[in-house]
Amino acid sequence: MKQISVVGAGTMGRGIAYTVALSGFNVNLHDIDESNLNQAKTSIEELLQKSVDKGFIEVEKAEAAKNHLTYENNLQQAVREADAVIEAVLEEIPLKIEVFQKLDRYCPEHTILATNTSTLSPTEIGASTNRPEKVIAMHFFNPVHKMKLIEIIKGLDTSEETVRIVQGLGEKMNKETVEVNEFPGFVTSRMNCLIGNEAMNMYMEGVASAEDIDKALKLGLNHPMGPLELADLVGLDSRLRNMNYLYKTLGEKYRPCPLLIKYVKAGKVGRKSGSGFYEYR
């Protein structure tokens, strides 16, 4: 496995591309929006330079990673030689299915197709292709270059060979992997959405300030980041999509906090908008 394509140049896509390139693979990062690709290139190169400046990686390794990366806004061109594709588009099942049907047409027969989803069904996505045995979920965490875990979720028809290859890919990226049976929310998202939603309800009810809720969980429960600042980092719009899906599939306890719905309607979606539970301007 030498050539990896990443589809979607948002926060997760560029983080995955950075990490895969540092691991020695050739990476083709795709996005239909040329400006997103330009922003991703700037972001990745800035992160490489910061990693060198802080002594995390050597100059030679950063330069090699930069040379491993190409940026392409034509999907067919981006994936035509891929050994594996990692999709990182919006968490919407119709969009992911549309992307996977195109990947199925454009990719070589041997190509493994992975979705970076935090809640959605790799079985449903794989069933839309002619290669469901090669479709799998690889759930990365933000920021990708720092977070050690990849959740690997196999669909109903995913082959054991595909699981083994993806586990090996994770090891080459210096990640730990866990294998999860498909169920809405998997392990981490299911727990994280509950904690975050309850924190939002407590904030709405006036139990404590956002700062003190986050501080309590960081210092009292040893969480590295508070649930409200984490939701801002993930994006409140993304969190709401996850909550709506879990509410639909798992029931009442995942009903989204009314304040989350209100914030998203107001365009206050966290760090990327400059405002959420905190201000970032």
From TrEMBL:
**Pathway field:** Lipid metabolism; butanoate metabolism
Any idea which GO molecular function terms this record carries? 3-hydroxybutyryl-CoA dehydrogenase activity; NAD+ binding
EC code(s) of this entry: 1.1.1.157
Annotated 3-hydroxyacyl-CoA dehydrogenase C-terminal domain ranges read 185-280
Q: What class of enzyme is it?
A: oxidoreductase
Q: Does the keyword Oxidoreductase apply?
A: yes
Instruction: State the coiled-coil residue ranges.
Output: 61-92
User: Which residues participate in NAD(+) binding?
Assistant: 8-13, 31, 91, 96, 118, 142, 272
GO biological process: one example: fatty acid metabolic process
- The 3-hydroxyacyl-CoA dehydrogenase NAD binding domain covers 3-182
The UniProt entry's sequence similarity note says: Belongs to the 3-hydroxyacyl-CoA dehydrogenase family.
Protein name per Swiss-Prot or TrEMBL: 3-hydroxybutyryl-CoA dehydrogenase
